[in-house]
Amino acid sequence: MEGLFDPPETPGPATGAEGLIAPPPTAPLAVRMRPQTLDEIVGQQHLLGEGSPLRRLINGQGAASVLLYGPPGTGKTTMASLIARATGGRFEALSALSAGVKEVRAVIDVARRRLIGDGKGPGQQTVLFIDEVHRFSKTQQDALLDAVENRIVLLVAATTENPSFSVVAPLLSRSLVLQLRSLTDDDIREVLKRAVADPRGLDGRVQVTEAAYDHLVAVAGGDARRALTALEASADSTEIVDLADVETAIDRAAVRYDRDGDQHYDVTSAFIKSIRGSDVDAAVHYLARMIAAGEDPRFIARRLMIHASEDIGMADPTALQTAVAAAHVVNMVGMPEARLALTQATIHLATAPKSAGVVKAIGAALADVEAGKARAVPPHLRDSHYAGAKKLGNGVAYRYPHDHPDGVVAQQYPPDELVGVDYYEPTDHGLEREIGSRVARLRSIVRGAVTRRRSR
Fold first, then answer.
1. Model-level pTM greater than 0.85?
2. Most C-beta atoms within 10 A of its C-beta, which of 128, 309, 343, 377?
3. In this structure, what are the phi and psi dihedrals at residue 179, rounded to the nearest 5 degrees?
């Protein structure tokens, strides 16, 4: 389900915009509730401000091809139909899953004849909506270039992937790229309540409890179509939709998890402590609970990045790389696919050797700084890249490590009062077993001899 209201699987002849705006009563609830005007669009206010390019298009005041980029169920197809209605054009829908170069060229040929007209009046513009445009090959996308360039068609393309990586540069340069955002919980709730009351929807024939609304919002994951499909299934045979009806209809039990309450903090705490305790199965369980409850995946990714350093650190430096990579996947791919990267990172962190060395090192160093142990930098380490620096003793007697075959020389680096203080204490876990012996050798060379650790 890639759009708020997907086009038909096998579209027939060209359809006027009015036909799209007034679906039959037997159509799915999500289709019947398609916004008919700009004011009915929920969310995307960052794109619909006064004077914005998208608002001007939907109001019929512009004529630019558009690439709509965003998660499923955010209104991409709805906006395409509103643009078609505003321009008075004919609406053609193609899916990249089923259309090839032949079908694209056939639509363009019809659009060209339609634009010329029959000689008795002005021709008619064609609005070509292409869903899943990122699935088009380079050849298929190239077939659109001339028609877009010469405005034979007004292209409205939709994609759930970043078009910078999936759409050819010439098509990108000819189009206005607009990024849609996932709907918020409040947006989804508004969509649901409108569907319950609106004559096009359930027309007030059912009542929905707040617990049922909460669960519908949670399972939607920011996707309005998913929310409306779940509502329709839940209201199929009852006049009062409660939590049990929703759970039965969508075969998914409500997760007892309040993103703003105790459950949020308890589950998050258990997730973190399971990673720290190396219980990979418990960690994956709590991750699943957060995902199932609709927790913001960016929040989960942030926790993983933090704990890659806090609980693992130098015992396995690749843990932080994995956590950061998972955060990139969350931002670039989105849910539900990003749950795999989050799971991979969780498994990596939970099974990695553990060390609190990073936390202890910066904690001890900050404690000394806050206690006033931050006196003058040794003269030979001070900046000497200005006139008169040498006269002040700055940089004098500095030993350049790369001049030594081993790349390490005996030299004082900390302020006088901190000579011999050890902040980083490697454990015997994972890579730190090797790092520990190396750190000991480095300290011995740098300090000129094995220096007794000073009491802090």
1. no
2. 128
3. -100, 120
Preceding omega of 35 cis (within 30 degrees of 0): no
SS3 455: coil
Residue 256 included in any domain: no
When mean pLDDT is compared over 81-90, 244-253, 278-287, the highest value belongs to 278-287
Structural domain span for residue 327? 262-351
Is 113:104 a contact under the CB 8 Å cutoff?
no
- 312 φ/ψ angles, rounded to the nearest 5 degrees: -125, -55
Q: Where a domain ends, among 179, 194, 227?
A: 179
Same domain flag for 52 and 129 = yes
Mean pLDDT of 83-104: 78
In one-letter notation, the amino acid at residue 395 is: G
- Six-digit token string for 245: 């009806």
Tell me the DSSP string of 144-213.
THHHHHTTSEEEEEEESS-HHHHS-HHHHHTSEEEE--PPPHHHHHHHHHHHHHSTTTTTT--EE-HHHH
What is the average pLDDT across 412-437? 88
Q: pLDDT tier at 120 (50, 70, 90 boundaries)?
A: low
Distance between CA atoms of 419 and 372, rounded to whole angstroms? 15
